[in-house]
Structures are given as C-alpha cells and as structure tokens.
Amino acid sequence: MPSLPVSRTGIMNSPTKVANPPDSSAPAPIRRRQRARKACLPCRLRKRKCDMQHPCSMCKTYDYECQYAKDNRPSAAYMQRTGLSLSPGSRLLHNDNGESDERMRSESPVSRRTLHSHTDSEGKDRSRSDEILKPIALDRGILDPYNSRYMSQNSAVAFPRSLAADLQSSTPLPLHSFAYHCSLRPEESGSSHVALSSIISQEEFNVYADVYYTAIHPIFGFLEHEHFAERCGNYWNGSYQSLEFSAVMAGVATLGSYFSFPTGHPREQDILRYAKGVLEDSEICRRPSIDQVCAWLLRSIYLRATTRPHVAWLASCVTLHLAEATGLHHDVGAIILTTDSTPGHSISSDEQGLERARAVFWCSWTVNMLTAYEYGRSSVKLDSITCKQIKFTPGSSFANLVKIAQMIPPESANCDRDELLRGIQAMKRINDSCEMITLTKADFAFAFYRRLRLLRQGIEKAVIADIVTLGNKSVSAAYILAQQNRPWWNVLSTIFQYCCVLLSVDTSETLSHVAWVLETFEKVVELLGRTHLAVEALDTARTLLRDSVKKKKQDLSLLEIAASGIDQTGQVEDVGIDWDAVFNTYPPISLAHDFIANGMLGDYKSGL
C-alpha cells in the first residue's frame, strides 16, 4: 500500500484520486500552477488560498511573514521586481543582482543573509520557499505585548497557537501555557505593599531625583528625563499608581540618596526594601514588563555600589533575563506580535518609545557584561540580538560606557592574547567624557592585564606603558570624584587594582609610580570618611608593598652572597691564571707579513 504524503506541518494528507484518461475532445485543463505562483510563499507552502495582496489576509490574520517569490514572467507582473522584504521593521531589500538596497544601522548586531535567485522549476521553487521561510521561522520570536511575554516560535507555549493558525481556526488561541503542570496547588498569592508616599514625600523625592539625573543619568542614561518626570507627576496626582513604576521611582530615590553623600534620606533602606518587595512579589513577577527591567537595573547599579560582587552579578543577570522575557533584545519589526494592543506598561510603537526601549536593553546588557567580566563570572548569553544601537549624542558618557562593554572579548577557555591586546588599545582610544568613564577604562585595562598575566607569554613595554597611562589618569579621576562626594564603586577599587598592577609588573618604570598612588589613595580614604572597606583596602595595599620590599631584600641578599668573592675595592682576586698564555695564541702582528709572504700561514693554522 503506498504511503500517504506528508505535508510540511507534519500532518498526513489524504490520498489523491487517480485521474481518468483525458478526453481528446475535452478542452485543455486550466494550468492551476500559474495561480499557485501568484500566491505568496506562506500560502503556497501551506496550500492555502491567497488573495494576492501584500500582506494577504491569511498572513495578516495569523502573523505570517507575507512574501512573494521573484518571477519575471508576464503572469507575475504584479510582483515586486526589486527583491524580497525580510521583515517590516528591519528589512533588507535585494535587487536582481543580490545587492543590498536598504540596510539597517551599521551598529545593529542583526545577522544579514543574502538571498539568491531561483529558477522556475517547481522543485527549486519549493526549495526557495524553504530557504526563505525556515530561517525566519527560527529567528523571529513571538511577543504578547499585553502581558510582555516573549519566547521563540519553537516554544511549547507558542506551539498550540501556531497549530491553530495552521488549522485555520476560527478562534486563534492565545499565547498561553496550556498543561504546563498538573495544577495541584494554587499559585502563590501576592503581597501587600504600603504606598511609596508613606516613606518619602513628593518634595523629598524631587530632590533626590535631581541628584540622580545630575550624577547618574549622564552615565546610565536609560530613563529619559521628561518622560520619567511626566509619569512621576501622574503617580503623585493619583492618575497612575502602578506598583512596578513605584519600584522604578524607589530605585531612583535610593540612588539619589546614596549619591547625596555624606547626607542622604533617613529612610533610604526602607525605600530600598520597598522596591525589593515589589520586584519579588510573586503576583508581579508573573507578568514581566519594561518597568520591572528598569527597576531591576536601578537595583543592580545600587547593589554594585553598596554590596558584595556576587549579589551585584546576580541582580545584573536577573535584569538581562527580564529584558529578554519582555523582548527588548529585538526590535519590534523582528518579532511577531500576538495583538496590536499597547497597554500603558508595554513598549510604545513610536520612535521615541522604541529609542527608550533600546536604551533600557543596552544599559541592561552593559551592566551585566561589565559586572560579570570584572568579577570573573559568566555573562548572560542571548541567542540573538536584533535590537538596534541607540542614537547617541557626540561625547555621550552613556555611549562610551556601552562602547567599553562592546570592546570586551568573549570569555573562553582558550583566551586570545591578540584580543586582549586590542582591548587595551581600544580602552586608550575611548574619550574621557567624564571621570567615571576614565575609571571604567582603567578597570578593564587592568582586567585585560590580569588575563594576559595568566597566559605567561610576556607583555611588551609599549602595552605596559599604555596601562600605566590609563592607571595614572584613573587615580587623578578618583581623587576628583572623592572631592565631589561622588562615591562610585571604582573610586576605591580602581586605585587599589592599579597598586596591584604596578607591583605585579615590577619594573623600575611601574614602581616609580607606587609612592604617588599610595599617597593619593590615603587622601581618597580620608575623603570617604575612613570606612571599613576603604581602610581595609589601604592596609592591604601597604601590606603588598611591604611584601614586595621583603622579596626584593631576599633577592638582594642572594646577590650579595654571589658577590662575596669580590673585595671591597671591586678588584677580582688573583687566582693564578696566566692571562698572557691565554691571549698570545696567535703570532705577533709584526710577523704576519713574513708568515703570509713565505706561505707559512697555512702551516701555522694546521698546527693549531
């Protein structure tokens, strides 16, 4: 019994009936193949009727990527002659020669594919359909904008909806986790939260928000000031009081309070716990949103400045995972939306809203990359990133911070020495737009040096000179920030790491800077109020210096033992060697002419 043909959806088609022999008197049958060629590729692949619009009704209904194959025959005159559109938001058009007519921004990390022309044969035409549709089906994710849930199209959660679309269901299924578990227990209930206004007043909040936008926003510029101020106004007048946005406001207030050093809000820790309670609420966690990403990002920055590296790294990973969960790593044109609904907490579809979303993603990615690489942990690896780069203004410190993160080579078991050397050169080329950027450049130059040191392949003097240049600038920048009461985390850590690098390189050029660095270090510790970690770091640097001196004294004693055979005048003792006999092996120069003239030089050499 012949096997049933299988469709591309994995469902067996019914067997076709055997056609009767054609009657010679009957009119010629209509070539249905011509009509099939007019259909779009998704309709042809699924054997659906196509209305030949762009996009057609089926593709519009089921969120397919409506595309038409190139065909230069007269019957296909309505088709586009210039090429194919990969996606409405980030398309890459190709002409008949395969050359690009429209490209995305050069900074975008979207992978680019060149689509080749095809023949009119049915077999190659179907392979052409596979060539176009398969990569798109794998690359494009699906996003529910109302619940801000992103996933790949191959997800078990997305599969029922995709199947319903293939079956032309009259009621398309929602993006829902059907049968995800046995549902034997109820979900954890949410927590109750006090109002943020009961902890901090509007006047106090405005003061610390101004500090935030003065000290922090120029470097981590993901919260647009005007947009944030407008939403804060709506929150305080009661027209919009979302718990998620209140967590964002709490994050801004805590950072503003921290950078109001040496003063700050008396209930800074209460504001911090408020934001943490909202972010860890089980009911709120069920629906990730861009506000949650912003709140976690603010929390990551605060934890990096105030607590242990493990906690800061963990928070940065959660932030980037939430950015992926909300689809921020893709531009809107690169994903499928389940609905056109755009509630207040979702990403706005206008250009300003898209730019805000890109800023949030790239800042989240940067914080995770910097924290992980400095600490020696793995960063979050996203499968694909199609989010475009931000439209940075010239001299932007935020732009320079993202550049620093993008210069970091990937961590691997086989570390590439050339990549590390290029990284140091790249740090040197980035502009010192502010003191924080100067410190961060030095931090990662030191990070590259630590990895080069482990390779034990030697480091050129020019590379060491570049590291010293970056280090000296960072010490001056740290002292300026300490005087301005801007307690960034690397005000202390960069100077301490620079001391370690100078002692590790251990050359006259590097050791000549140790005294000045330690002197500045002491001044910074005093300006910070001699905190526990500051005094601990200074004492450790002094201990390392004493250990270096001790080691050099031990080396010097070994050299003194080796030089014990030399007397006080520096003369070498006579050990009875007849130096005249050693150096008078050849005849005097005055006899050379006689030797050569009489042909005796050859006999003399043969006798040696």
UniProtKB/TrEMBL annotation:
Gene Ontology MF: a single term: DNA-binding transcription factor activity, RNA polymerase II-specific
GO biological process: DNA-templated transcription; response to xenobiotic stimulus
Annotated InterPro entries: Metabolite_Synth_Reg, XnlR_reg_dom, Zn2-C6_fun-type_DNA-bd_sf, Zn2Cys6_DnaBD
Keywords assigned: DNA-binding, Metal-binding, Nucleus, Transcription, Transcription regulation, Zinc
Positions with biased composition (Basic and acidic residues): 93-106, 117-131
Stretches the record annotates as Disordered: 1-36, 83-131
Superkingdom as given in the UniProt entry: Eukaryota
Residue stretches making up the Zn(2)-C6 fungal-type domain: 39-68
UniProt-listed PANTHER family: 2-NITROPROPANE DIOXYGENASE FAMILY, PUTATIVE (AFU_ORTHOLOGUE AFUA_2G17430)-RELATED, PROTEIN RDR1
Protein name, UniProt field: Zn(2)-C6 fungal-type domain-containing protein
Upper taxonomic lineage: Eukaryota, Fungi, Dikarya, Ascomycota, Pezizomycotina
